[in-house]
Amino acid sequence: MMTNIIDGKSIAAKLRSRIANEVESLKQQGIHPGLAVILVGDDPASQVYVRSKGKQTKEAGMNSFEYRLADNTPQEALLELISKLNQDNSVNGILVQLPLPRHIDEEAIINAIAPQKDVDGFHPINIGLLSTGGKATIPCTPLGCLMMLKDQLGDLSGLKAVVLGRSNIVGKPMASLLIKENCTVTIAHSKTTCIEDECRQADILIAAVGKPELVKENWIKPGATIIDVGINRIKDTENNSKLVGDVDFINVSKKSGAITPVPGGVGPMTIACLLLNTLTITLRQNNLSIPKWIINQE
Ligand SMILES: Nc1nc(=O)c2c([nH]1)NC[C@@H]1CN(c3ccc(C(=O)N[C@@H](CCC(=O)O)C(=O)O)cc3)C=[N+]21
């Protein structure tokens, strides 16, 4: 079977150009969207993402405010910064890069972000709104996955979806979104008795467990659509570092109908959806209507 490679990089580029157009017309009305990104500590991978977010934010015509804090920053200082940004009218969205250093209580930090500025959609209010079908901010990675699925498959009604992983930032919100799209959804995880059997039922498989190349060819229903959320840095046979997903891409792609690559799949869509969420929350904060092309934010 010839699989379709879902080109996240190019879908993300198209999305960013639509966002830039919208930002341009907002600026003509005197509204200049602004995104604040806070990075605590010096994790090299996080630094790469934060740099890339800042660059793309500016390319979309938005203001980017970056805060790089030392690894030993006290929780109180971080809470104070968030409180200041909550009150700052030039800041529409606030993102605190996760994971945080161990001495900081992640839940307390997420809870401190004003829900209407929570561009990641991690605040319990937004998670609750997503579950009840309200005006939530949808977490960027699941939103990007959904856009690629709709781009590939159109209507998802009645399809059987299996989500591997139950994290608050990917697995659970992904399942909520797919339920909203009328899929029949299973969440499988490390304690699922036969994970392969669950996967073999899936028309749509979302792999978000952080285990390099876990999903094998014989786990796949022929023709299934595979979304690989994993970003794992491993050493290849020559001891060079390379990025792989949670899916054994070379072999699974022989059997799937469509599959996202790593890199170039979910990653670029995550950043594009961060910009999209910044736009959406800016429109909401200004009581402006959300354009029709922005899916799932009505
Ligand atoms: N509050 C918060 N929100 C996040 O959205 C968030 C976070 N914390 N912490 C870390 C994770 C990870 N994440 C990625 C974004 C883009 C790529 C990306 O663009 N990846 C490229 C490859 C980049 C490379 O080469 O390392 C790709 O897949 O093509 C990856 C990972 C956002 N995250």
* Computed structural class: alpha/beta
The CA-CA distance between the termini, in Å, is: 38 Å
Question: Biggest sheet, open or closed, and with what strands and sense?
Answer: 6 strands, parallel
Can you say what the CATH homologous superfamily of the largest domain is?
Answer: NAD(P)-binding Rossmann-like Domain
Low-confidence stretches: none
Share of residues in helices: 40-55%
Number of strands: 11
Using only C-alpha atoms, the radius of gyration works out to 19 Å
Order of helices and strands: EHEHEHEHHHEHEHEEEEHEH
Query: What would you say the CATH architecture of the largest domain is?
Result: 3-Layer(aba) Sandwich
Side-by-side strand order of the widest sheet? 1-11-8-7-5-6
What oligomeric state do these chains adopt? single chain
Bound molecules: 5,10-Methenyltetrahydrofolate
Approximate strand percentage: 15-25%
User: Tally the helices: what do you get?
Assistant: 10
CATH fold name of the largest domain, please? Rossmann fold
**Overall number of structural domains:** 2
Notable characteristics:
298 residues, alpha/beta, Rossmann fold, 2 domains, six-stranded parallel sheet, three-stranded parallel sheet, 10 helices, 40% helix, globular, binds 5,10-Methenyltetrahydrofolate, EC 1.5.1.5, methionine biosynthesis, hydrolase, amino-acid biosynthesis, Bifunctional protein FolD
